[in-house]
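In practice, a research group might receive sequence data for several interacting partners and want a quick structural hypothesis before committing to experiments. The following worked case mirrors that situation: the sequences arrive first, and a predicted assembly follows.
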Amino acid sequence: MKGYLLLETGEWFEGKWFGAEVESIGEVVFQTGMTGYQEVLTDPSYAGQIVNFTYPLIGNYGINGVDDQSIRPHVLGVIVAELCSEPSHSQYRLTFEQVLEKYQIPGLAGIDTRELTKIIRKHGTVKGVISKTLDHPIRSMDSSSKPSLVNPMNRENVIADMTLVETVSTANPIYYPGDGPHVVVMDYGYKYSIIDALRSLGCAVTVVPFDFTAEQVFKLNPDGILFSNGPGDPKDLIHLSHQVKMMASAYPSLGICLGHQVLGLAFGADTEKLLFGHRGVNHPVLNIETNQVWITSQNHGYIVKEESLKGTDFQVTHINVNDRSVEGMKHLYLPIQSVQFHPEAHPGPVEAFEIFVDFVEQCGMSRNSRTSCSSKGVKQYAQTS
Amino acid sequence: MHKHRKQFHKVLVIGSGPIVIGQAAEFDYAGTQACMTLKEEGIEIVLVNNNPATIMTDEEIVDHVYFEPLEVDSITKIIEKERPDGLLATLGGQTGLNLALDLDKAGVLEKYQVTLLGTPISSIQQGEDRELFKKLMMEIGEPVPDSITTGDGSEAIAFAQTIGFPVIVRPAFTLGGSGGGKAESVEELMEIVQRGVKESPIGQVLIDKSLLGWKEIEYEVMRDHEGNSIIVCNMENIDPMGVHTGDSIVVAPSQTLNDREYQMLRTVSLKVIRALNIVGGCNIQFALHPDGEEYSIIEVNPRVSRSSALASKATGYPIARIATKLALGYSLYEIQNPIIPHTFASFEPTLDYIVVKFPRWPFDKFPYINRTLGTQMKATGEVMTMDRTFEGAFLKAIRALEIGKAGLIDEATHFIPMKELEEMIQQADDRRIFFIAEAFRRGASVQQIHRLSKIHPFFLTKLQAMVQLELTLLDKSLWSSVKENIEQLRYVKQKGVSDQIIAKSLGISTYELWQIYQEHQILPSYKSVDTCAGEFEAKTPYFYSTRLGTDDEAALVGKKIAVIGSGPIRIGQGIEFDYCSVHSAITLEKEGVQSIVINNNPETVSTDYQMSSRLYMEPLTLEDVLPILVKEQVDGVIYQVGGQTSLKLAKQLADYVPLLGTSIKTIDKMEDREQFNHFLSEAGIIPIKGEIIWSMEQVEHAVEKIGYPFLIRPSYVIGGQWMRIIQNQQQLTIYLQQLQLSLTNRSFYPLLIDQYIGGKEVEVDAISDGIDWIIPAIVEHVEQAGVHSGDSTAVLPPFSLTEQEKLGVIKTAEKVLAHGNFVGLVNIQMIIEQNQIYVLEVNPRASRTVPVISKVTGIPMIAIATKVQLGQSLATMNYPLGYIGENPFYTVKAPVFSSQKLPGMVKELGPEMTSTGEMMALGFTLDEALAKVSPSRDKKKLTIQEETQTNTAYLTPRTLREYRAALQRGEGQYEYRN
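A structural hypothesis for the assembly, expressed as tokens:
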């Protein structure tokens, strides 16, 4: 069956339909990894997005039972050049297409994904629809007056950005036992690999809904708090800033991706949208203290503005080697570190794992200090600042 | 940021020397990039490399070039004279690396205070010495195959018996696994160990557990002195463990690894490069268990290698260039990414296409030698092709090989009994892919072939579908009418099927097919290689074709000329033509014309996108080249510089696009025996008696007329392939049988039979503009006529010709030039016998000797020829016309053989070329020059002391006699050793 990808910018592509026979509309983003399509599919940060894979052969090793990053795929649609229908791998359980069918996600194959990438690169944010016909309202809009298009598009979008985190966050706390420090993960759309990383270091983990208050979290008696990755604009969560600041001021904290941006906003910094996001597994990040470069896994459309950190108690620790954007920051006095990239990898390089090691070490120290003396002082700082 | 960086003023670069199997053009590419980078840094460069057919030895590239033997003695003398403060040895292959180790051991580096740039000596030793490496890996907890290093046979047997046969044997410190092999039994083990110990410069072999059937995966890693590391790319061998990686069909990136496996090996690669403390590039080979996450580290190359050239071309990331910067003390994040402005070298390339590398073996020339592939590399060259589908890239590779195949199905395999076919699939030789295709044609299942070949089902599934499609096409009833099947045609082209097969299927000519394509716009689009999958705006002038989607860039604006390259390196068509292609492209640029280079050899300088306005990595066939020329609307095509490959292609292109230089009509005149003899007679030259044979009956007739001995060969051949001197009836019968065998069902007619004249062989290369000409030198061969010119030791100026003879040679050459209407390069081969000068061949194209002559005479032959082909006249250039006279010193160009790598290869010199490379030496006397290339490397034996002192040595007949005699005995071949 033929299908079309229609873009708000006026361009359109014809391809071969696969997956569920439902139409889908969302922001079209490109992902440049050469492996890891299963992880991308199931990463909640991709909620609300149609993912265009730049690597032209997708599905070669099928879908296995170990690499999912959440309970189900969150992408709204998938665009590929060629879909492998006969995968082979010892761990393979389902084909890529079977998973899409199961979760009612449409896909298009036979698309010039490089050309599509170049269009996204040129325009930045591009909304699109996977449609059965060429006759769709998105095309009737005049591409030369693009700014005025953004609003009607948003109205049409069934899942408004405001609700993205809500759609992927857990409704109830989930507890994973462990002998080490107890880490509470604020679930903005966390990946399983974050839990795996913490547990591999011995942590007990409680995943809590994104809107848990500081009070609710403190009751869980954590040794540290991890503000997770997730989809959408961090400003959608700005109403939680006060709670976030209280939590981060009270316990060693680690922010990842959206969690990093949320922390920035909570402490008075600002965020902005990149022209087109960083989505891939090859992004170089320089630690400006040590001059070490990590190649990192990234998936974000927003960043913390560097100049907005002036006047806050945060300083930049990591920058992107290419566009010099903020990739990591730490609090001058409190044990808070946050990173824009994904130290948990999956997909992508695992070399930034050290971030977890440092964080868990901090959690361990906090645990010991609290068992020996009161943590009142820290909490007081949180309330006064 | 760089305050700790040591400033170097003068750096010695060691090249890799002559081309041999296992060490080829990739080191000219690496070396050229290194030297260009050093130059950018304002560093004075001293280069030692005795391979003349290289770009790196050009005086425009380096400041001081020495064509001296790559030995400690000569390099010490050069160090003494030049006093460099740095040494760059990790870009000259195993040769460069071993020499650095030797120079260090001899205390030379310390004595003259030469700092080794990049990876320290201790790391090189740890990477190269199997025992040290094993120890290091155990220290960091990484698995290596169970192994021992020994020089002792009984120890080897004891070990093999404990871990069980088969075992893999590799000599320590050798090129391309030379002298290694797989041993199934005690007897085999003994034999290989003996050979290996002899091969190894330290007299030891490594014996390890056979990991036959495991996936073979390679990672290319870069690391700076601060410890920052990146992966340039990974590659997966389609042939699993057991076949040398140089003999494997390779894809990049890996196709069957999930992210977990990919990252696992990536992490280990970084761990290993850190443990080895490498500064620069490094290649790591893994064996990965097909079912799981178990792996073993097979090998580490602490230097730039063949794989890194491939990785550079596959990704666009210039490894050698960056490695040089790292060696100078830069950090990865300080080095600008040359492809994408505002980005840096510390990122990992990501591909949005698939790359296939296919080796080119010499078995088509030597069908009688053992074709089995194993741990010892046998390929002389390789092709690399790209597409956004596996099918497209793979079938392009088959076409690029120039082995007479357009697809997978080969009628010649139809009659092989199934059992035999299965055995051959299991065993692996150069034809395995075609045997697999044949098995699929007969209905074999993927599982069946997987059991035999251990090739991953992903690849087999693809191949099976490709065979199926070809079969469908061979069933001509598929097409009711072309017009109704345009969509079908589009689909078939998307699957990479050759026009040869489609035209056959449709029952039309490829010309008619081309018209259908044009009418219906069934044309490829061209995507660029940008290292970032389109994420950033990059302007890399490096393209490949694909059948889905749109062009990345519009056609170039302004005058543009295409240069057709020479494809994979094979015996008879080597790196010299790449040298010529590069110079042609550079000259075009200098003349303000945009150059479009088309080639598919990943090892070479011509496929460095910095060398031309645009580079297209495509097979050199009509169907692949024509769409490029049409897209770019080229003003002309230069076909003279890419050897026989471009010449053959030019004849097909002539109907479609303007060719520059000598006309096709003239080429035909030179190649067609009858026309050629007619041409010679017209020019006043006595032709050699010869006949063209179209049938068996004519053979007898011709033999009667010409008489024994005679020279026989099929028409239009490369490197004297199948050319033999026939002494008697028996030899003739055997020859014809063998020829038929090698060509299976194809006809070998027409055959050429020529009278054999055993005189002195002389060559002249000239540039002509149709009116005037320049003859920079006369080259005399040491061997008698009958030995292929590529296998001859060539000397200039001539050493044994009288003034009269020289005059005769020039006069004859001028007769040819005056009557030939040549525009560009001409190579004329002559024989002098009893004061009579015969013209053997006239090749209206660049020849093997062009780089040597250009280098020693200072006449840039390719540059002049290119200008002539652009329409300039020789008279307006500032070069002397006519014969320019002799050099006051001797230049010797000697062949280098790789016969050790090809067991069973005949060592005798004859009309069929067998050498893989060449080296050059200079001397004030002939002896001095000859000694530098002499087989025995024992200078005393060749130099007659007294005569040298009286300065008459260049005429010492004894030296030459001894040398010639040694060659005739078959001992004279200079075998490359490390």
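Before designing any experiment, note the following. Chain B touches chain A through 54 residues (CB under 8 Å). The first helix of chain B runs from residue 26 to 40.
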